[in-house]
Amino acid sequence: GLEKKTVNSKVGENIGLPCCHEIPSSESLQNYRVYWQKNITEVVLAYAYGKKISMHEQYKNRTEMNTSNLTLMISAVKILDNGSYQCVVQHRRSSQNPVVVCDQSITLFVTADFSKPNITAEVFAETCESTEMVVRCSSYGGYPKPKISGVLNNESVVWNTSWVSEASFSPYNVTGELRLNVTEEDNITCSIEYNGFTKSTSLLLSR
């Protein structure tokens, strides 16, 4: 079918991407050409009539294909493996050109865990009634780009946020900053959300 298939994974896991065709036990890979390609342009792995004919550098030593159900196995997935994969299967008939048996896309979504948020507070200015503080929340090493949210004494606050990522498909570091007047004791919570996961840290600010 044309329904979009997605496989979710975390960095370092071993995964299998299912193909759209299984070779019946009465036949062998010898009658088929199988291409696993990524983002339509790169061939990850290709077999022609039972022989492996091509393999992409990036996947060397960590990718293999099951020769009966044609699943693409990738070990130790990386953020760079994110993308859309196509499995294309052709069957060789006795006389004609190979016939396309199936051609299907599957999306691989790889998540990397962020560190537990770290909250620091420094005093910026002090008066008799209140203390002005700069509060920072930071978390690093995760993917995809996170959302950062804050709660101050049960009220939500918006962090002044900056993200850093060295390249596309590389981990993000995120930092949020807040300037607060603390009068007695304030409880601040910082949460990082990414792909359905959340990590939070709380800190009691007192003057």
Automatic annotation (TrEMBL):
Gene name in the database record: Cd80
Localisation per UniProt entry: Cell membrane
GO cellular component: a single term: external side of plasma membrane
Gene3D superfamilies: Immunoglobulins
Keywords carried by this UniProt record: Cell membrane, Disulfide bond, Glycoprotein, Immunoglobulin domain, Membrane, Receptor, Signal, Transmembrane, Transmembrane helix
Broad class of the protein's primary localization: membrane
Protein name (Swiss-Prot/TrEMBL): CD80 protein
Record flagged with keyword Cell membrane: yes
Bilayer topology: Single-pass type I membrane protein
Domain Ig-like: 1-107
One GO-annotated biological process of the protein: immune response
InterPro entries: CD80_C2-set, Ig-like_dom, Ig-like_dom_sf, Ig-like_fold, Ig_V-set, T-cell_Activation_Regulation
Annotated organism of origin: Piaya cayana (Common squirrel cuckoo)
